[in-house]
Target: Cytochrome c
Amino acid sequence: MKKIILLIIVTILIILYSCDSNTYQDIEQDPAATTQDNSGSTGSTSGSSSGRTSGSTSGSTTTSNVTYTTDVKPIITNNCVSCHFSGGESPALTTYTQVKNATSGGSLLCSIQAQGCKVMPRSGKMSQINIDLILLWKTQGYIQ
Ligand code: HEC
Model:
């Protein structure tokens, strides 16, 4: 009797597993099709494939490929540009080049992570999700 129950459980698990992997394949095909026209460089191809792997485990498409336009710019606009506009008292962070230079120079990452610099935004650190997105943007090579 116990063996039969065990057999049923194993069968259910196998069915569930095979359904699962089908679903993931379906999901993974969509972002692949859309990210291809987003980025044409060779560097971003490797970035997108590694990003997709982590994206499928969390089930989120946001982390699949971090770009300035869709991910980083809204964060900077919402949290920083009120002070960091061009012509303001602090360095402007309104264009791709300005944000990229501040990030690669280290001052931006140092301040948003409060690593011994003045904390930015001045009201306190942003959510870790925003900070991680900017770090991932750097790792993937500042995709525009
Ligand atoms: C309330 C205004 C304000 C906000 C919001 C703000 N900053 Fe600043 N930030 C400043 C000011 C003013 C300075 C100039 C240095 C100083 O006196 O603190 C500065 C300096 C900096 C610097 C150092 C520049 C350098 O060359 O050393 C960086 C990097 C920076 N901010 C990034 C950011 C980022 C990224 C955000 C958003 C996450 C942000 N700031 C939000 C006011 C602000």
User: Anything to note?
Assistant: Residues 2-58 form one domain. Residues 20 and 122 are 45 Å apart (CA to CA).
